[in-house]
């Protein structure tokens, strides 16, 4: 990971290339506030993707959503955050995560 634009963005090298507009990419840039950086992170405990709702918060949606609004666990219609055909995984402990979706995901047994 490399920091860009005075440390506000990170250029992240992906383990596998993903399909995006214009072809396959191996690196993506993200705003640091949108990253949950962990050392030796475990994979997400539940297979949920992230969708952006009208409240601009991350909502838990099905892991392989179609490229159109889908219902989140809390009932809100959310637009999947897709990079090619890959959906960003849902993280219940992010700052801008829907509280109801986080509660449902963390209270669901594995």
Task: Report on this structure.
The chain is mainly β. It has one helix and nine strands; from the N terminus they run E-E-E-E-E-E-E-E-E-H. A four-stranded antiparallel sheet has the order 5-4-7-6. It has a three-stranded antiparallel sheet with strand order 1-2-3, with no helix packed on it. It is globular and about 35 Å long. The model has no long low-confidence stretch (mean pLDDT 82).
List the defining traits of the structure above.
single chain, 110 residues, mainly beta, four-stranded antiparallel beta sheet, three-stranded antiparallel beta sheet, 1 helix, globular
According to DSSP, the number of beta strands is: 9
Task: Give the mean pLDDT.
Answer: 82
> Helix coverage percent of residues?
under 10%
Low-confidence stretches: none
Query: What percentage of the residues does DSSP assign to strands (E)?
Result: 35-45%
Tally of individual domains: 2
Summary?
The chain has 110 residues and is mostly beta strands. It contains one helix and nine strands.
């Amino acid at each position: 990971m490399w920091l860009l634009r005075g440390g506000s963005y990170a250029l992240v090298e992906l383990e596998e290339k993903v399909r995006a507009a214009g072809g396959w990419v191996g690196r993506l840039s993200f705003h640091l506030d949108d990253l949950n950086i962990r050392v030796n992170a475990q994979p997400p405990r539940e297979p949920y993707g992230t969708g952006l709702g009208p409240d601009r918060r991350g909502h838990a949606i099905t892991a392989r959503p179609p490229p159109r609004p889908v219902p989140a666990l809390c009932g809100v219609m959310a637009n999947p955050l897709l990079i090619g055909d890959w959906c960003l995984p849902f993280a219940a402990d992010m700052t801008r995560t829907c509280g109801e979706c986080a509660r449902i995901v963390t209270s669901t047994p594995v």
